[in-house]
Specification:
This protein has about 400 residues and is an alpha+beta fold. The protein folds into 4 domains: about 80 residues, 2-Layer Sandwich (Alpha-Beta Plaits), CATH 3.30.70.260; about 70 residues, membrane protein fhac (Ubiquitin-like (UB roll)), CATH 3.10.20.310; about 60 residues, no CATH class; about 70 residues, no CATH class. It contains 8 helices and 22 strands. The strands form 6 sheets. It has a 5-stranded antiparallel sheet, with helices on one face. Strands 2-3-1-4 form a 4-stranded antiparallel sheet. A 4-stranded antiparallel sheet has the order 10-12-8-22, with no helix packed on it. α2 crosses α3. The longest helix is centred in the C-terminal third of the chain and has 19 residues.
């Protein structure tokens, strides 16, 4: 590898030797210190490589012995520079490109945040920007410790932070503190109220005055356990103490879910016709190139964003976006009963996941289907057991 690099930097000439004195030319050239490399016979000729410095000496020896030496190509850096001298516009363009590349690589064009779980990436980038560290900031003069201290001062949840800049990419690695346990305020008076309608099945009260017992029917908002305690004995004045009531209450709940699955619907398919729109991104600015408007009635839009980069650590502030518009054909179609029923069952499971708590226990579920000409009616009767205890602050001032 190094020999090839050395030959390229010094430059060499590919030649072709012909005639009846080829061997004589090679022998006399070797005696004179002229080195032929990569000797190859091509029919009646011999191809070889010789250094630019020895070309004139090899030509003189060939003339003396009666051989023919023909120059085929000049190879290497000197030959490239010689050709560029005759193309000064290309040389200026190359110099401008190199200067622009060196200029662009002296700025930060991407900031990656690693290690944040509770802290938002946008919040971290906002604090960095307020302290003069953002996309487009020059890499010279950046004080790593100042950037790290700014984040440590702003976010109490950061235990350690480190900044690493490689090329045009900045990586901020941080370690968050251990999540603090939730502090329960036991001084604020609280009632336990029902979160939903139901029949109480289990009730375990630690603090407070129970207002219901298992088997009772409650409505959402009813006070299940009061945070007011009566203090005193019969025949004496009653005083009250207000505390934070605590209780675990489970209840049996009933749900009625109804919806329709259309049997007749519009099915969309791709026609194969597309229209592409190209945009150039320079920094945070996007320039859309001229394009023809599409005449699609129904369509789907897809985006493909590409940022130019000279490697993982050398992203550039240049890129392009290809917006592809796919034409759709909308046709009237009809589902079978079995297809609609399958969709209905999937929607039931989705509704249950959305409306029920994670710890809810399903005791029974009945699904009824009723079909007409245009839709499948789905009726769901659901019975569950769930926790319904909910804290609500007690307004002591009004009492």
């Amino acid at each position: 590898m190094f020999i090839k690099l050395w030959k390229f930097l010094r430059g060499y000439v590919r030649i072709s030797i012909s005639g009846f004195a080829i061997e004589r030319l090679i022998n006399q050239a070797a005696a004179a210190g002229v080195v032929f490399a990569d000797l190859r016979r091509d029919g009646v000729c011999v191809d070889a490589c010789v250094s630019r410095r020895d070309l004139s000496r090899a030509a003189a020896i060939a003339k003396r012995v009666g051989a023919t030496l023909e120059t085929k190509a000049h190879v290497g850096l000197p030959a490239v520079l010689a050709r560029l001298k005759r193309r000064w516009v290309l040389l200026i363009g190359l110099a401008f490109f190199v200067a622009a590349l060196l200029l662009l690589t002296s700025f930060i064009w991407r900031i990656d945040i690693i290690g944040n779980d509770r802290i938002s990436t946008d919040d971290i980038l906002s604090v960095l920007s307020e302290n003069g560290f953002a996309i487009g900031t020059g890499t010279r003069g950046i004080v790593y410790r100042d950037v790290e201290n700014a984040l440590m001062a702003q976010f109490a949840d950061i235990a350690w932070v480190g900044l690493d800049i490689t090329g045009t990419r900045a990586v901020i690695r941080l370690v968050e503190t251990i999540k603090r346990p939730e502090i329960i305020d036991v001084t604020t008076p609280m009632d336990i109220v029902a979160a939903k309608d139901g029949i109480i099945t289990y009730m375990a009260t630690s603090l407070g005055t129970p207002m219901f017992r298992p088997g009772d029917v409650v409505r959402a908002g009813d006070v299940l356990v009061s945070g007011r305690l009566e203090i005193g004995v019969e025949g004496e004045a009653i005083t009250y103490e207000y505390i934070r009531a605590t209780s675990v209450v489970w209840a049996r709940l009933s749900y009625q879910i109804s919806f329709e699955v259309p049997l007749v619907f519009y099915e969309k398919t791709f026609t194969g016709r597309t229209r592409s729109i190209y945009s150039i991104m320079i920094g945070e600015r996007e320039i859309t190139l001229p394009h023809r408007q599409h005449d699609f009635i129904y369509y789907h839009v897809g985006f493909d964003n590409t940022q130019l980069s000279l490697g993982e650590n050398l992203p550039m502030p240049l890129g392009y976006t290809v917006t592809t518009i796919h034409e759709l054909d909308r046709r009237l179609s009809r589902r079978s009963f079995d297809e609609a029923r399958l969709i209905g069952e999937e929607m039931v499971q989705s509704r249950i996941a959305e409306e029920l708590a994670m710890d809810a226990l399903i005791e029974s579920m009945r699904i009824d289907f009723a079909e007409d000409d245009f839709a499948l009616r789905v009726n769901v009767a659901l019975v569950t057991t769930e926790r319904i205890d909910l804290e609500r602050e007690r307004d002591v001032q009004q009492e």
